[in-house]
Amino acid sequence: MRVSFTAALLCSALLSVAAKLEARISAITEGAFVEGGGAFILQYALSNTGASAVTVLTQDTPLEDSIRHPFLKFSGETEAEYTGIVVKRVAKTEVSDYLTLQPGQTVVEDIDLSHFYSFESNGFAELTALSTFTLADTHMSLTPSLDSLHATVSVRSNSLGIYVEGAAAKQRRAQTQDGDIEYLSCSSSRQSSVAISVQNAKTMMNVAVEVLEGDPTTAYATWFGAVTTSRFDKVRSNMGNILSEFASESYKIDCSCTDDYYAYVYPSDRSHTVYLCNAFWNAPVETFQFDSKPGTLIHELSHFSDVGGTDDHAYGRSAVQSLAINNPALAINNADSHEYFVESDPSDGTVLPPSAPTPPTPPPTARESLDLGELAEEEITLDGNTVEYGDMRFEFSLPAGLQNARLDVTTCSRATDFDTYLWLLDDAGEQVAENDDMANCATNEYASGMRLRVDDNNLQAGQTYMLVLAGYSGATGNFRVTLSLQGGSDPAPSSGVPTIYPTGYPTIYPTVYPTEDDEDEDEVCNALYVVADLLELEDLCASILQLNDEHDCGIGSTEAPTNYPTHYPTVAPTNDPTYYPTVAPTNYPTSFPTVAPTKDPTPPPTEASTSTEPTNPVNIQFKIGGNGRFTTIAPLYLTLIGEGGTESERLNLGLVERRTTHNVAVVSQVAAIGPLRAVIFCLDENDGDRTRLSRNNFELEVGGEVYGFTRTSGSWPILRSGNCQELEVVLAQ
To answer: Residues 263-283, buried b or exposed e (16+ Cβ, 10 A)?
Structure first.
């Protein structure tokens, strides 16, 4: 059972790796969006740009038959409010809820924007569609439940500008007075059932609010994830608002819904009407039961924008707990997370041990970076997202001679929609400052910011710095970061090199994409190899086997492929010696030179080279991955790199064999390498295929010192013939 569960999770992870989806939005209606002026058609197109078929769940995406979830992000001169519905769904899904896109296929959906969004003022608005698609196995035999689906991919569209006319300020909900719940289309028996549910909801909410008045507990961590003060305060505030709403009984209950949901609401509805549907009436009414009637009412009230403003990022207990682990910033804004926290009887949780929060460290690399050049005394604003491109780095320098200046950096903006974290590093990579949650940001309580004085806080004029922007606990989303240099004296005259800085919103995403497919193929095959190393062939799901065939990864083969270059004989000729055997020998052939061959003839030996004493003995132990293709028919080479940059010659490690730990002794003719910084592995260009080393079982002895990899978990990327890979090493403890 454990193997099957592990296989299911790994299959889900691989679906995310392989899915390549792109979205585009365009306006079909010409002219401005006129509030109250009729239809405004927006076209949403989703394309599968990968090499494999992708099956997506259409629920809560623009591809659903009717919009039931906000999917647009807005920026510009006017704010928009989602006026559609949000739904609490049952776990069961139907075949009709899924859509399979073949490679190269595009599906298009026309959406009337006026039905789902309302603007608060006239002006220019910039729209971007951002949707999270839940992925399913294309070869599924049974439709899965929502609780079993974990693989997702976030897809961000292009930005589209529109002009809004005829907008008017929205009326806010008037101060409500306590009273009786208003029932609409409810029989007397259903009114009685709701009344019991309301009383039980109040009982559970009182427990939850009391628990949250104390220190964070294990129950909080289970449903909302890692604790920070700001996130804990947000949950506590939401729960207090929900309890107040129950106490006032100033909401309405409508029993007219006949859909197979639990319930739905319009988050912008000032009357706070909750529409109860078929699944609600079959749910348990007792306290502290999951997916109960009282819990559903808690879930729905949390959605109202003036109560909790929660969304539906994950459904079901398993998915919600995964959300808490992987993205606490979304978990505290997830309706099911609030419901399950209350239904789980949080009074049973134990208080988390007090400890000072350990701030995360900046990622060692970032997939996207931008050189801002020398900052001038003005404000620079940069927009982007970390969903697709990962953590961001911005390099800049301060003008020489700058005095009495202040540098402000912040992600405080409506355009920032996730929990950001900022680091400032100097040109040596040392941390100058960092910040998680800044104070007094009216638009985003999880924004980050820092204010630094030049000639203070280790911030010096004329120096280069790196700003790193990432998400707390792996959170991702859209950001707007602003850098402002103020109040400094005139900088010293420059050397004549013009100051370079952005004049608007620079494009930080690559405009040229690779034309080769090797990188995508390697990414998929690497993931497949990890699974194949952990599981037996019969445990692999259909999606893994399909991806294996499509990307030619060779899983399931026990022999090295036979389609190698034909200039290597398959049997030893009778006259000439065989230099490359067809299978890896137990003892490596002595005909391989101890250094990589060169095109130039070897000069005659000198007196120094006739010495029989080894210059620098090297002993290395390493393991090769288990796939049949990883057995080589040409040598693997090793180069040593010293801390001072000195490199050894290429050392020949001979042939390697799959799923084997090799121990090789070679000799380097470079004596003064010194302490090592890294090693480089290269696969001979005559191999014709690939291999892969494991990070464990590695040990390197040089000059009496023993080294290991700085990272000991995970696997190397694929090493193809004629290619090299560098990895840092450290002295073994």
So the answer is: bbbbbbbeebbbbbbebbeeb
